[in-house]
């Protein structure tokens, strides 16, 4: 059983679910979804199953879909690693600033 705000999509043999996920997150797909969304509250708009099945997404040859998804996965992993590195550097900088301001670490004039 799925909540009313969740949909389950089945992908045919001529489509990659990873590629479809990327395609549905693209700007053209988002514009289609936003145009079809409706509801009584601006913050709680919904879309129907027929809206989702009617979305126009590019359907490239399956090998190309898989290759594109692989590239996105590789870049996504690299971006995640860079974000972890930035978080570590920020934590290190914050600790160093705290040590310097508290006097636990002294600076030496040259």
Give an account of the 3D structure.
It is built from four helices and no strands. The chain is elongated. It is mainly α and 110 residues long. The protein starts with 16 loop residues before the first helix and ends in an 8-residue tail after the last helix. Helix 1 (17-25) crosses helix 4.
Which range does the strand content fall in? Answer: under 5%
Largest sheet data? none
Q: In one word, what is the shape?
A: elongated
pLDDT < 50 stretches:
none
Query: Considering DSSP H and I runs of 4 or more, what fraction of the residues is helical?
Result: 55-70%
Oligomer: single chain
Our count of helices gives 4
- Over all CA atoms, what is the radius of gyration? 23 Å
Structural class: mainly alpha
In round numbers, the mean pLDDT is 88
Termini Cα gap:
70 Å
Number of strands: 0
Order of helices and strands: HHHH
State the gist of this model.
The protein has helices at 17-25, 27-36, 49-53, 62-102. With 110 residues, the protein is mostly helical.
Give a quick set of tags describing it:
single chain, 110 residues, mainly alpha
Helix/strand layout:
Layout: H1 17-25, H2 27-36, H3 49-53, H4 62-102
